[in-house]
Amino acid sequence: MSEPLPPRPSARKHALLVVDVQPSFAVPAPMVAAIRMLTRKFHTVATVERHDEAVTPFEGQLGWKPAESDDSLVDADRLFIKHGYLPPVALIDHFQSLAIERVFVCGGQADTCCLAAGFMLFDAGLHPTLLKWLSVGSSLDRSAGLGADLWQHHFGNVLYSQSDLDRIA
After folding, report:
1. Chain segment 102-136, per-residue pLDDT in tens
2. From 12, 46, 139, 140, which residue has the greatest number of CB atoms within 10 Å?
3. 10 Å Cβ neighbour count for 119?
4. Residue 71 Cα to chain centre, angstroms
């Protein structure tokens, strides 16, 4: 019997972060399906925003709140619950423990929650890369164009199509 093959180098060095793909953020079904396809290729981590006014005052300050019990619409190798824009610090620890070098980011709120995750990933040296075609923006810009522009300005890494991803992963 032969030994199992080691993971492809990109599988060890790259990961997928799916930000807040949950019912509260109305991510289009075709986008959810495309993200699910990518979870087969990369180690996948997902975040879910849960409401706790005592932790993050969304309702008090913005008059809006995510559901208290939303679940991710995408299966992931690891799920992190968050309260607010930023993912928990444990998410960074998780990627670093796996020696991940680049994190592909997609999901909901490209101009807020994805961007907040991007800052954390960048500061940790994890080369955040936005997958624009698999992201939606906030109600300010559902196209994710604003988020992609901000991402490009701050991190320099935005991919616009599956073929762009295929070239580097």
Report:
1. 999 999 999 999 999 999 999 999 999 999 999 99
2. 46
3. 14
4. 15
